[in-house]
Amino acid sequence: MTVTTDTTTLESGVRSYSRTWPVTFERAQGSFLHTPDGKEYLDFFTGAGVMNYGHNNPILKDALLQYLAEDNIVHSLDMFTTAREDFLATFTEQILRPRGLDHTVMFPGPGGANAVEAALKLARKVTGRESIINFTNAFHGMTLGALAVTGNSMKREGAGVPLVHSTPMPYDDYFNGDIPDFVYFERLLADSGSGLNTPAAVIVETVQGEGGVNTARLEWLRRLSEICREHEILLIVDDIQVGCGRTGGFFSFEEAGIVPDIICLSKAISGYGLPLALTLLRPELDVWDPGEHNGTFRGFAPAFVTAAEAIRTYWADTTLEDSTVTKGAFVEATLNSIVAKRPEGELTAKGRGLIRGLEFADPDAAQATCRNAFDAGLLVETSGPRDEVIKLLPPLTISEDELTRGLATLRTATMDALG
Amino acid sequence: MTVTTDTTTLESGVRSYSRTWPVTFERAQGSFLHTPDGKEYLDFFTGAGVMNYGHNNPILKDALLQYLAEDNIVHSLDMFTTAREDFLATFTEQILRPRGLDHTVMFPGPGGANAVEAALKLARKVTGRESIINFTNAFHGMTLGALAVTGNSMKREGAGVPLVHSTPMPYDDYFNGDIPDFVYFERLLADSGSGLNTPAAVIVETVQGEGGVNTARLEWLRRLSEICREHEILLIVDDIQVGCGRTGGFFSFEEAGIVPDIICLSKAISGYGLPLALTLLRPELDVWDPGEHNGTFRGFAPAFVTAAEAIRTYWADTTLEDSTVTKGAFVEATLNSIVAKRPEGELTAKGRGLIRGLEFADPDAAQATCRNAFDAGLLVETSGPRDEVIKLLPPLTISEDELTRGLATLRTATMDALG
Amino acid sequence: MTVTTDTTTLESGVRSYSRTWPVTFERAQGSFLHTPDGKEYLDFFTGAGVMNYGHNNPILKDALLQYLAEDNIVHSLDMFTTAREDFLATFTEQILRPRGLDHTVMFPGPGGANAVEAALKLARKVTGRESIINFTNAFHGMTLGALAVTGNSMKREGAGVPLVHSTPMPYDDYFNGDIPDFVYFERLLADSGSGLNTPAAVIVETVQGEGGVNTARLEWLRRLSEICREHEILLIVDDIQVGCGRTGGFFSFEEAGIVPDIICLSKAISGYGLPLALTLLRPELDVWDPGEHNGTFRGFAPAFVTAAEAIRTYWADTTLEDSTVTKGAFVEATLNSIVAKRPEGELTAKGRGLIRGLEFADPDAAQATCRNAFDAGLLVETSGPRDEVIKLLPPLTISEDELTRGLATLRTATMDALG
Amino acid sequence: MTVTTDTTTLESGVRSYSRTWPVTFERAQGSFLHTPDGKEYLDFFTGAGVMNYGHNNPILKDALLQYLAEDNIVHSLDMFTTAREDFLATFTEQILRPRGLDHTVMFPGPGGANAVEAALKLARKVTGRESIINFTNAFHGMTLGALAVTGNSMKREGAGVPLVHSTPMPYDDYFNGDIPDFVYFERLLADSGSGLNTPAAVIVETVQGEGGVNTARLEWLRRLSEICREHEILLIVDDIQVGCGRTGGFFSFEEAGIVPDIICLSKAISGYGLPLALTLLRPELDVWDPGEHNGTFRGFAPAFVTAAEAIRTYWADTTLEDSTVTKGAFVEATLNSIVAKRPEGELTAKGRGLIRGLEFADPDAAQATCRNAFDAGLLVETSGPRDEVIKLLPPLTISEDELTRGLATLRTATMDALG
What we know:
4 copies of one chain form a homotetramer. By secondary structure, chain A is of the alpha/beta class. Chain A folds into 2 domains: 7-57 and 318-418, Alpha-Beta Complex (Aspartate Aminotransferase, domain 1), CATH 3.90.1150.10; 72-314, Type I PLP-dependent aspartate aminotransferase-like (Major domain) (Aspartate Aminotransferase, domain 2), CATH 3.40.640. The first copy, chain A, is 36% helix and 16% strand. Chain A has 13 helices and 18 strands. Chain A has helices at 17-20, 46-49, 58-69, 82-96, 112-127, 144-148, 153-157, 183-190, 218-230, 301-314, 319-341, 363-375, 400-418, and strands at residues 24-25, 27-29, 32-34, 40-43, 104-106, 131-135, 166-169, 199-204, 207-208, 214-215, 234-238, 262-265, 278-281, 347-352, 355-360, 378-379, 381-383, 389-392. In chain A, helix 11 packs parallel to helix 13 and helix 12 (363-375) packs across helix 13. The radius of gyration of chain A is 21 Å and the shape is globular. The N and C termini of chain A lie far apart (43 Å). The B-C interface holds B 130-131, 134-138, 149-154, 156, 162-168, 170, 174-175, 178-179, 183-184, 187-188, 191-198, 211-212, 384-386 and C 130-131, 134-138, 149-154, 156, 162-168, 170, 174-175, 178-179, 183-184, 187-188, 191-198, 211-212, 384-386.
């Protein structure tokens, strides 16, 4: 594989991460990425939360290689395959039912945006309403339906048509606690003259990854769930980035004790970076006609294989969940200690479980910190409307040593950036 | 992998192919799918045109297994990887440039709908217009932007919101040759009082796979391209189903000698059923801001590996292209001989290269033919607005014997169905 | 009333007719307008077809002055008034019922756009569909709902938002007879894969006044009515410009023998230039909730008074209708004789009853003819997408002498313009 | 004028006021309406604020009758007429310029909805943005553009299509003072990730008549104006119901010292119940192409005549303005005394100038009060999302005796209703 062309000129200018990290990566193992010339990078980014079990996780790798070697089916749309049936049974019996969820499983397409599009379409079909409530700084995807409920104005303008049928409501703590939760939303719903189109659904992330690691309190999520129930509005939880154990439990909403009507999963669900997405539906909502929503890559069998294997390996008991909580607390404590070193208001620590954020009052300092970290062999990305929050998404399987080492690098990078 | 649950109850009722073919598939090789109990099915469906090089193609399989075994990078968003660079260079140098195409490559997400959404967004951004011209019986995907340019009314109603910003125009031969090509479209464009919003783009499939194997004549495509140029409307060719050699040349539009402004590829591009999609842009249209369109699974490295290997293996010379044309002619001749056996108008043969259709005046007979074929070990699906067209998408690598055998099965299935 | 300011600078640049006819008018009587300095203009424009009974018609004037002098109610929203009741009874008993129309009367607001907006809203409410079929070169008004079904691209761009929920179909003779009527519309309706959203309604003008005096044949209207019935699509006739006797019968569609589901009237309905609009509804469609559509000037009592008086005066027998047909035939013959004087294709005569058009192959010549006519004391306006059609809308009450004189002026103006 | 038919069956069920007041009115003079059988009603409704100078005001009546008697022009679209020029000069010189307003005058059509539609269209055209901010419980009209910025859910549902391109913000005191003004709006504007489409304009009523006589504080209006300026958002004041002196000064926003970019006027502008509407534009915003927005009844000359006469009669000095303020204070004091008689929270007095509201905690009591008042010869209507606010709109020219008498009737009606 010798590459002689400068391939950056061959690719659309829309590329972004390769601008932040201008090196070529080749191999990856566990918590590390490697370049051809032997540099290694500790990965606190994990492909935007996709590689929860580490890169090329050996258990999943074995299952995948065996599956492929045996000429099992790779591609089959929504035909029945042994891999599909195994995944459906494993996911339902080991993940859904033990958590009291009676949802059916829909395969809406290969990526998270497909899961969101299917959720929105079904919510509208079921309720006969068109309007969706989203939240400030939400991120749900780039296709037209998903983009309409996404907050980022730069990405919204890429639509080229007005993005309508959605109304943004303030996410938890949007006013720094100065205003009671949901006061605006509840008032608009109660007032028949408010001008708010009655919503089909609310779509929410329990932690807003792209939006800046904004973390909803559990009571805020519970109240949101109650409001939805009171007004017969469907509750969609987009657990694409923070589901699959990122916050501790398999679903990020478990801790709040709520049961969403529709749940979107993708990213880490296959456990190996293989494209897969699920939309989980309360069974009474599953009013699709056969084939009413379809698509080519809905049954990517290798992803079923690694996904089922990941469930068997990591979700048969609470070992991973417990370790995520413990590691998360360690990261939190470390971030707090960094924050405490700096003047009040310069830094803020955020997050839950193993999605953590370090918010900088000065976005330039966040950028500089990222660059410093990269130079020191640590991959962290920024998020938030002004790219002012460093987002930490280490593998859930990261070792304590790696975690300690990465956080030390981050501390130094931060201090150097802040001067 | 012992499955004890009846997994059909665990899955959303939206599933469709598993209703047509109520068996569980396990393995696949070349032109065949196999069930656990040893039955084999000759595959004239190939996952809706995804498996152009046959299932688990051994050359691609070797490359894939080696890549995975060496712990090369699987998931990396749009970071630079050796696999990405190799694909970009190979695709550009061996596919694009030899065909006189100077397009840049965008990775819009893992599936075809992502490619279409990105194409539509960019066309609107570039032109500042919102309206898109699509064609009757078009199929471009299930996300909200792609669904708006899709014809099927059942699927459109699944949107739950009015699908707007698009106007359908008659596809080639929509009036059985009774009306001159483009007479309505050109009149509307020429008349400033027509009420047609000036389109940003036209999106077209050269052969409509889902729409019923409707096959545009080359002169129709050329005239469409001219009209677009005359009116400064962008031409988007959705080559997701019939690109990658399905009609002979790598791109289905090559034969017509046109150069689309934007090209959508997916399905067969990876050659191995691995989710990958491309949106190809004339370089002057590549006005995206960095990150303006993003998404998680835009850089699925194993797909890059098999895609590049497929190009090196099958597109270094014209062997595959020539064989596709030859096999296509053979299928055409066979279908014509079946048609000729029946009363005038009962059957019609359609298609180009190795996408072929057999249209039944009676949709029930098409269904019965499919069932007969399945019972005899042949997978063929129907398409068209009334599911009245049997669509043949055999692997391009199918052997002559397999092709002959499958067509014989189809002939018998058809005759039995028609009585 | 001495005006010293140059008031053109005080008014928005959106004004248009005052650019065509840069004089100030003061008084009007019958077929003539007068300026303060004593010039008179024969009016073949009649305020875009508003003054069907001539300016300041003495019979209506008497009724109006008496009504106002007696301090009868002028403004009352939709409260009951004696004037309202008299109008409702007179209109229903003398206009609707004798024509076999059992429609109820809705007062949607003071102008034609209100009548159209109410019609579209009700059609959508009744059918639960959102899409409307309009026709090329239609004109239905400037408010957002009405503008979406209007053809003129300059006016559409004034909306500032994409105008959606409508699809234009070719009006009668859009292809000069080369293509069978409704072939495209019927094909799209019959094909469930066409991509056409099933329409709530079709809105049509029997003669397109603003669109260039395009005149639908009666059999085209009948076939349109049948198609609507076959597909359970509501038929809305916008009779705002050509109803109230303009084509002969009170309604322009009478001659075709069709019964629209919804009828829009305005312009000439008051007979005196007083703002009034009606939306007539087949009783089973009248599913409005009380007050669901409201507005301030829905019950302009002086307009009721003159409207009722006009009905009693002009519609008790067929005198006016007969005379309109006779005069229309005379205008037609005259226009034909003008056309016959010129090379083939340079001029075309169009129209029905007393709405007539003279279409110029060269729009500049149409403009020049208008200016010549104005200089010679005749008011005629142009219409059509390129302002290429001179539109004649003389008062229905015009005398034969006036009509002859005006046509002679037009002939000279035309010949001078064409050189 | 003998009416024998029961005309209620001839009219659409959409009628509403005739349900509240099931009598037929015939004549009107000053503050009173009269029925044919000699009953008289003191009018605290004035046709929803249209008859500010009383019914059939004798000064305006003389001007109108003379104008009509002399056969002056009644209808002329936007042609120059002496009446139009006189109005333009009078309105500009006596109303606009003395108030420091350099706006140009646009005649958008006969009613208030036309004024709003034109304002929204122009705001979008000027800014190139599509989104409008409206307020909770706003009322701006029934046409599709105006309805999208109206709050009432029953009326919104009448649209039959999703009403989009608008986002409601809380009106002044929407949270009873618990939340700082504009905290949500400003936060959304400041946050590029909020998901709010950048607005073209804000449209606001200084007092919400239909919304329940909600009265914005002057500092709230000033802050709104500042926010608009800071963010380059156009400010549209819809002064259709409370302009023309209703709150004291000619424009309701004068007192706040703000200068809106666009102003909508209608209802009372003609002074005689004659349909007329104005859209006033800051001259640099007047970018309309000639004829880009047009319409039939934009130049209703009799309305120009009475409008100009009303300005000369009532706005040459501050007599009317002063008396409105004085009378308003008297009404306020009376309402306060009624409120004080009842338990805390049962009644609330609202309003400014001579638009006043009495809000009932129990909407049924508001209805009963209206009925009691009607039985006692006083016309008052309810407003607000639950029809819980009795709205008082007496003529500005009402005598002290009439005002006192009406308020006494209202007091009794209220007390009887509350028991």
